[in-house]
Specification:
The complex is a heterodimer of chains A (about 525) and B (about 850). With about 525 residues, chain A is an all-alpha fold. Chain A has helices at about 1-25, 35-55, 75-95, 105-120, 125-145, 150-180, 190-195, 205-220, 230-235, 240-250, 255-260, 260-265, 270-290, 295-315, 320-340, 360-385, 390-415, 420-450, 460-485, 495-505, 510, 520, and strands at about 60-65, 65-70, 200, 205. In chain A, strand 3 and strand 4 form a beta hairpin. By secondary structure, chain B is an alpha/beta fold. The chains are: A mainly alpha (about 525), B alpha/beta (about 850).
């Protein structure tokens, strides 16, 4: 009885967003209410499925004993996240796109994307995943195309080109796996078994290698990592809600495929290396370019490139729990920033002039920042004892937390005009926020753990070190460029200027696509 | 051959007059984008614009045809319009930029490539702090930075090869010298410089106009020099300006003249409608009764609705006055810098500071809290942008921002109240006042007014608003502001007379002045005695919600509390009525008609594309006594400036009105006009695609030129025009000789009138009647032909709803109007 109900709910969860979206295209009521209602229905069902998954009652569909879809805890968490964030954005769009003639296309494309992404996160079979993967690509291309104005069409074409690599790779891998071993079940035990089996495609190349490389390529193209990064900044040619859907849900597909394929990637030097190089390049390029962009939307898009780079490195170094939480938290963070991108003038630039410090102050400042940071990180460490900080990779991750805390504390101190009791309140809040988010991460990770693969990937330590080095390089360049600002004689100015020019060049939208002038836009 | 750098610089500045005058988006001020062509007749300017940029200056003939078939353009108006003469000239600019000539001859797109590079440098240079990593060497100016950096720009090589590095280094470091070298190299002759520079500006009018704001010719020279240097790099050295065959776009003068007739007919129709409303129908009973209160509002068209409803609530006299209350000042808010708070055509003469009006420890505490909130924003911004910091920050902040996004989307009203409550809890407002007295304060610089300035400013304000006697016990000075969320164009909805900022501070300053005993003594000496029982109260009208908030409440004496309470209750009632009248015209409210929450929801909703209509549908300015317009529903389309012709025999006050409020009205009307007739070239594009850049403007989408003008959602919705594009109609109650004299004395106004940029009707409801000032300086008497207009209304009724959102059928009753609007809304 319960099984039937759950399976039925799964049907609603997976099909409702697309059906509702597509119905908007045909219905007389173009307001999008139909799409929103369907997504809400799916979102509610996903919640029930999540509760069930918590009690180890996974909804699943099989065909001929072949497990096609199964809502494990990982899938359940992502289902709720993807559908709820789509629901928020679609609701937003019912108002913000009210005057847009092409709004029903937005609802159709975002509904299809939600269905496809939802299917992707719970897919338990390679062919199911491949089909979902391609459907995500197609619906994203339609989402970006929107009303078909030249810049949007160009962005859609560029995304299609990038996705084509991943799509073909995933499909070829599915064909290869089918001909070699028949079915591939994307669950930790089955994948680990496959990774140890040593099967060869047509007796030539290792099946694990093929699967791993395919997953790596697919992830790189979906996460907009170099060399496939340009489609993401171009996508701001689509309306704000489309960007929010894209950055909240769709780009995370890359992380999902990396986690599902982790056992086979973990044994492939080549695939792991591919992900690490692209991930680190994404971190460096994304954060550098984001810092040079003067417009809010492409800056956010480039920042997503770096965040996705960070996330795939986490995946490649075995930090699946943190990677998963990064996807969810970053998705919420970024979609909020896109939806609110009209507010950037309201408080974003509220005050930015901080007087340069004398070196005497600098020492005292450094001591206070170090003390506050040590206290904050130490407190969270002591209170939470996070299990995710194990190994070199875990330490590197802890390093990122430390850097962030130090950055916040330092900026706070420098921008305060006078010391007061409020400083203590602020540091208290910093401790609470840091500890709270680490504790939340620990709890969630503990809950998902059963559906995470237990893998000790090759190159894990090297990968973590590479990420740390990348971040350090970015840090140094930024520090030098801040010091060099306005003083051409300072050491390093030439180097930082060239770094600036490269970042500005890579981020120049005209580099990849000519921007149509109004005369060309007009029909 | 090298041109003279001084000549080149001067020409660069002169040519920039053709650029639209624009303002940073945070202080959006409406201007006439065709300002540079006002010395030409309107239709000729339209032809020239069509010939140079392809921009439209009229609606299309199809639009006018459908306005005719809907009855909005009557046959009578069309006949009258076609009797008028419209002539376009024939001169046409013959010069494009070098790359434009080349593109035209070879089918390439070099000019667009050059545009992309120039736009990239402009965006980086003009950025006011959005990019965390700013352009290095900005202190060297645009050209200096480019000259220092461009040789190492990786994009340069792909544009023009490796040789380009050397060729840029070989240019002089000074922009004007470099420009003169380049001008000489391509043999652009001195007489052609202006044409060439204008053509160069036309390629990126948004960025060029932003560069022109600094008032310093260096940035404009840099724009031209970079542009010409890039053209020089991509074009064969043998291509010289002297060899170019002139290019002319076809601009069909005859078609423009036809459009001019259509437009004239549309405007004559509205003229007749307004004059009919003014001159006929039942006069409101104006018994000689003392008013309970007088209320001064901004001339802004949105004040008209509130004034009408307030007057209906009780014995209130309302007065229309420019919303800066005649004060040429800068205002420094408690925690802010001094910013101009007067029309951009007025030079601020003093700075007024807002100071705490509480004990020092409370003030210090408040300052500390404000500073802490600033530090929170600074810290979160640095965590977002510093290298290595955003990763962990996103993980922590996401859990907060995700639920917040859901709340703001599902329950926008509740979210707005929550935000306000949070702000109140962290930064509770403390009582403050505007410090009008002269002082050298510790913040540096002088502020305040000398006692002489105080009296003269107060005196000028009272005379210009024609309030010099018969003061009521309570005089409300009401500025206005808007309250919208997630709206980069918020300033476009604020007070245009206060340079795109809320008008409350100016109201507070004038109230301080007029309540000050010393100032009152001074005024009495000048003949304006304010009774001791009269108190001036500052207030602010929120045009998004139609609520009025009394300011500086702590300064109001208890003796006036009861009176004020009554006034506030009536203001609340009037505001509710005004809001529900307005709500019917807002898109997306079909299901919420009469729901008061919908108006509040719009104000706080981050997803709302049309929080209010702003000044859309503005059409005319009426300068005269309120009796002229009282009791008539002018549909929030008319600027109302109070003027008593009898009190101003020498025309001093009227002269000030014509050169101040009238010009500001013309700018607003033109901004809406051109953003409506050509949203692609004069408008800022659609809101869901807006991408705030540099803290100063928006892109539509990925990049390109900085967009100017108003967003599409300010003038139309879902493909339907909401604003009815019409040049400003000024109706002035004054003797025509007085106007003739003033027009003659003021060349700016004369130019606008004689070239058909604004329309003037003067006279009175007396035996003289009304007459329109014609372009040749003569007057044309206005006659109402009622029967004709009745017929037109009948035609409209049979043909169904008009294609635009107008409620112009004065003969239909309110229920019909609602029905009519609903039908149109449902059509979407």
């Amino acid at each position: 009885m319960l099984r039937t109900v759950l399976d039925l709910l799964l049907l609603v969860t997976l099909s409702a967003p697309a059906l509702g979206g597509l119905a908007t295209l045909r219905s007389a009521d173009r307001s999008g209410r139909l799409a929103v209602t369907s997504t809400a229905l799916a979102s509610g069902s996903a919640l029930v499925l999540t509760v069930a998954a918590g009690f180890d009652r996974s909804a699943s569909w099989s065909f001929d004993d072949r497990l096609l879809i199964q809502v494990d805890r990982l899938g359940a968490l992502l289902l709720v996240f993807v559908l709820t964030s789509t629901l928020v954005v679609q609701t937003f769009a019912t108002r913000s796109l009210r005057g847009d003639a092409a709004r029903s296309r937005f609802f159709a494309a975002s509904g299809c994307a939600a269905t496809a992404t939802a299917t992707l996160v719970v897919a338990a079979d390679l062919w199911t995943m491949a089909a979902a993967w391609v459907l995500v690509s197609v619906s994203t291309a339609l989402l970006l195309r929107h009303d078909g104005r030249p810049s949007a069409a160009a962005a859609s074409r560029r995304a299609t080109q990038a996705f084509l690599v991943g799509d073909v790779a995933v499909l070829l891998a599915a064909v290869a796996a089918s001909t070699t071993v028949g079915t591939v079940t994307l669950r930790p035990e089955a994948m680990s078994g496959l990774a140890g089996s040593g099967d060869r495609v047509f007796g030539l190349v290792s099946l694990t290698g093929v699967l791993a490389v395919a997953a790596a390529l697919a992830a790189i193209s979906r996460c907009a990592l170099p060399p496939a990064q340009t489609w993401l900044p171009m996508s701001v040619a689509a309306p704000t809600p489309s960007s929010a859907v894209l950055h909240a849900g769709i780009v995370n597909g890359g992380g999902v495929i990396l986690i599902r394929f982790a056992p086979v990637i973990g044994v492939s030097w080549f695939a792991t290396g591919l992900v690490l190089v692209a991930g680190c390049a994404g971190v460096l390029m994304g954060s550098a370019v984001a810092r040079t962009r003067a417009d809010v939307k492409t800056s956010l898009a480039w920042s997503t490139v770096s965040q996705m780079g960070f996330m795939v490195v986490q995946c490649a170094t075995g930090l699946f729990g943190p990677a998963l939480l990064h996807m969810v938290a970053h998705g919420m963070y970024k979609s909020n920033l896109f939806l609110g991108s009209g507010s950037v003038l309201e408080h974003g630039l509220r005050r930015r002039d901080m007087a340069p410090m004398r070196s005497v102050d600098m020492v005292g400042h450094a001591v206070v920042v170090a003390a506050v940071t040590a206290a904050t990180v130490g407190a969270s460490w002591a209170l939470v004892r996070p299990t995710s900080f194990e190994g070199v990779a875990g330490l590197v991750f802890l390093g990122f937390v430390t850097v962030t805390v130090a950055q916040v504390a330092s900026t706070w101190l420098r921008s305060r005009q006078e010391r007061s009791a409020l400083d203590l309140v602020a540091f208290g809040a910093l401790v609470v926020a840091t500890t709270g988010s680490i504790a939340l991460a620990a709890v969630l990770k503990h809950w998902i753990a059963p559906s995470l693969p237990e893998v000790e990937p090759v190159l894990a330590s090297i990968g973590a070190a590479a990420l740390a080095t990348t971040a350090l390089v970015g840090w140094c360049v930024a520090g030098l460029s801040n010091r060099a600002a306005g003083d051409p004689r300072r050491t390093g100015t030439r180097a930082t200027n060239r770094a600036y020019l490269w970042a500005a060049h890579l981020g120049d939208p005209a580099r990849v696509a000519p921007i149509p002038r109004p005369s060309e836009v007009r029909t | 051959m090298t041109a003279n750098p001084f000549t080149v610089r001067a020409q660069a500045l002169v040519a920039s007059v053709a650029l639209p005058q624009t303002f940073p988006i945070g202080t959006f001020v409406a201007t006439n984008p065709m300002h540079g062509l006002e010395h030409r007749r309107f239709e000729d300017a339209a032809r020239l614009a069509a010939a140079t940029t392809g921009a439209r200056s009229y609606l299309t003939e199809d639009d006018y045809e459908s306005l005719r078939s809907s009855g909005r353009i009557t046959e009578r108006a069309l006949r009258a319009a076609s009797e008028r003469e419209f002539r376009t000239g024939t001169d046409a600019p013959t010069r494009g930029t070098l790359t434009e000539h080349f593109d035209q001859a070879h089918g390439t797109a070099l000019a667009a490539r050059v545009d992309d590079v120039v736009a990239k440098w402009c965006a980086a240079y003009l950025d006011e702090g959005q990019a965390a990593w700013p352009l290095p060497h900005r202190d060297l100016g645009l050209f200096g930075a480019w000259h220092a950096l461009a040789p190492r720009d990786p994009g340069l090589v792909s544009l023009a090869g490796r040789i380009a590095r050397r060729r840029i280094k070989d240019l002089p470091e000074n922009g004007a010298q470099a420009l003169s070298v380049l001008v000489g190299r391509r043999q652009i002759q001195e007489p052609d410089l202006g044409d060439y520079f204008r053509a160069a500006y036309r390629r990126l009018p948004g960025w060029a106009s932003a560069l022109a704001r600094s008032g310093n010719s260096d940035d404009l020279v840099a724009y031209l020099a970079i542009r010409l240097a890039l053209e020089d790099l991509v074009l064969d050295p043998a291509i010289l300006a002297t060899d170019q065959t002139p290019v002319t776009r076809s601009a069909d003068g005859a078609r423009i003249e036809r459009l001019a007739v259509w437009q004239e007919a549309l405007e004559l129709g509205y003229r007749d409608q307004l004059l009919r409303a003014i001159s006929s129908g039942p006069r409101p009973a104006t018994p000689a009764r003392p008013a309970d209160a007088q209320a001064v509002f901004c001339i802004d068209v949105r004040s008209e609705g509130l004034r009408r409803h307030l007057e209906a609530c009780g014995r209130y006299d309302t007065i229309g006055f420019a919303g800066f209350f005649g004060l040429p000042i800068e205002v420094a808010a408690l925690e802010g810098n001094a910013v101009p708070s007067c029309p951009v055509i007025v030079e601020p003469r003093a700075t007024i500071r807002e100071v705490p009006d509480v004990d020092p420890s409370t003030a210090t505490g408040a300052h500390d809290r404000h500073d802490a909130v600033d530090a929170v924003w600074a810290a979160s911004r640095s965590a977002k942008t510093a290298p290595a910091a955003p990763f962990a920050f996103a993980e922590a902040a996401g859990w907060l921002l995700g639920p917040l996004a859901a709340l703001r989307t599902f329950a926008p009203h509740a979210a707005a109240r929550l935000t306000a409550a949070a702000r109140n809890a962290t930064e509770p407002a403390i009582p403050t006042r505007m410090h009008i007295d002269h002082s050298s304060d510790p913040h540096g610089g002088r502020s305040g007014l000398t006692s002489r300035e105080q009296v003269s400013m107060a005196h000028a304000a009272l005379t210009t608003m024609s309030l010099t006697s018969d003061f009521a016990p309570l005089v409300l000075l009401c500025g206005h502001r808007s309250s919208t969320t997630n709206n980069p164009f918020a300033a476009a909805l604020d007070c245009g007379a206060c340079a795109g900022k809320p008008g409350g501070p100016n109201a507070r300053v004038l109230a301080e002045l007029l309540n000050n005993p010393h100032v009152r003594e001074g005024l009495a000496d000048a003949g304006h005695t304010i009774p001791t029982s009269t108190w001036f109260v500052a207030a602010e009208h929120d045009t998004t919600t139609d609520t009025v908030r009394v300011l500086d409440r702590h300064l109001i004496p208890p003796s006036h509390a009861e009176r004020l309470a009554r006034l506030e209750a009536d203001l609340e009632l009037a505001g509710r009525r005004c809001a529900s009248e307005r709500q019917r015209t807002l898109p997306g409210s079909e299901k919420q008609h009469g729901a008061p929450g919908d108006i509040d929801r719009r104000s706080g909703d981050w997803a709302e594309p049309v929080p209010e209509w702003g000044l859309a549908r503005n059409a005319a300015v009426v300068v005269g006594p309120r009796a002229l317009t009282a009791g008539r529903d002018l549909e929030r389309r008319v600027f109302l400036h109070s003027y008593e012709p009898d009190q101003d025999p020498d025309g001093t006050v009227l002269g000030a009105i014509l050169t101040g409020p009238l010009l500001v009205g013309h700018w607003i009307s033109s901004q809406y006009y051109f953003s409506t007739v050509d949203p692609d070239r004069h408008g800022a594009g659609t809101k869901p695609l807006h991408n705030v850049v540099g803290g100063i403007g928006v892109y539509e989408g990925v990049g390109g030129d900085l967009r100017t003008g108003l967003p599409l959602e300010s003038v139309s919705f879902a493909g339907r025009r909401v604003h009815e594009p019409m040049r400003l109609l000024a109706v002035v109650e004054a003797p025509r000789e007085r106007l003739e004299r003033l027009v003659e004395a003021n060349s700016a106004v004369a130019q606008l009138l004689h070239n058909g940029w604004i329309r003037l009707v003067a006279g009175s409801n007396g035996p003289d009647g009304w007459a329109e000032y014609r372009r040749d300086g003569t007057w044309e008497r206005w006659h109402d032909d009622e029967t004709d207009s009745r017929a037109a209304t009948d035609t409209a009724a049979t043909l169904g709803p008009a294609p635009i959102l107008t409620l112009h059928h004065t003969s239909v009753d309110a229920a019909d109007i609602t029905q009519h609007t609903e039908t149109m809304m449902e059509d979407r």
